[in-house]
Amino acid sequence: MLNAIAAPAEAFMSRCRLPRKFLVISIAFLIPIGMLLVLFWQEIGAQVETATLENDGVPIISALSKHLGNQLSGSASVEPE
Question: What stretches of the chain adopt beta strand conformation (E)?
Answer without folding.
Answer: none
